[in-house]
Design brief:
Strand content: 35-45%
Number of domains: 1
Order of helices and strands: EEEEEEEEEEEEEEHE
Structural class: mainly beta
Largest sheet: 9 strands, antiparallel
Radius of gyration: 17 Å
CATH class: Mainly Beta
Number of strands: 15
CATH superfamily: Glucose Permease (Domain IIA)
CATH architecture: Distorted Sandwich
Helix content: under 10%
CATH topology: Glucose Permease (Domain IIA)
Number of helices: 1
Distance between the termini: 40 Å
Shape: globular
Length: 187
């Protein structure tokens, strides 16, 4: 087992995982594939992967992982619960966890939840249950095959929106390797 700390002249330094990877938030962690009747898993990724009504690039600020309502959601790192929102217009029920990934302070956002099983101030460990997936916020009218967890990794607690907001975020795929998205798994 690797020690969480390294030492330099008897001073502890925080250990940075050389793989750069963290735990997955879901036991089965596939990118969401269905958008209406179209199979487009790349639209679930971080960045300018969608278009607005005028055909202009639209930034997606995290990753969407396919999961039926009620799927347990687990923390990807150790951290502290700093925000709980019950009825956000876009994210619905969500939890923000202040954490450190590869030496950088971040705020992980777990959104569209049906249940929240932590409270502000809770110290949580990697793998601890945060809540359950749901269909809240702008996900409330999705078809069963479109249900998902939205996960963001933000460099600021209020990172902003659009292209500027994406500069204040980390692409979740840089630290989480999703399972291959399969149509037959997301029916």
């Amino acid at each position: 087992m690797m020690n969480k700390y390294s030492y330099c002249r008897n001073n502890p330094l925080i250990f940075i995982d050389p793989t750069g990877l963290v735990s997955k938030p879901l036991e089965k962690c596939e990118l969401r594939g269905w958008y209406g009747d179209n199979w487009k898993p790349d639209s679930s990724k971080f960045g300018p992967v969608r278009t607005d009504d005028k055909g202009q690039p639209k930034y997606h600020q995290g990753n969407d992982y396919a999961a039926p309502v009620g799927t347990p959601v687990n923390s990807i790192t150790d951290g502290e619960v700093v925000t709980i929102e019950e009825n956000h217009v876009d994210f619905g029920k969500y939890v923000d966890v202040k954490a450190t990934i590869n030496g950088e302070e971040v705020f992980e956002r777990y959104a569209h939840l049906s249940e929240i099983e932590v409270k502000v101030g809770d110290k949580i460990k990697e793998g601890d249950k945060i809540g359950k997936t749901g269909k809240t916020g702008n996900a409330s009218n999705l078809k069963t095959k479109e249900e998902h967890l939205h996960l963001e990794i933000n460099k600021k607690q209020a990172p902003g929106t659009g292209e500027d907001g994406s500069k204040n975020r980390i692409d979740p795929e840089t630290v989480i390797t999703p399972d291959e998205a399969k149509k037959e798994d997301q029916q």
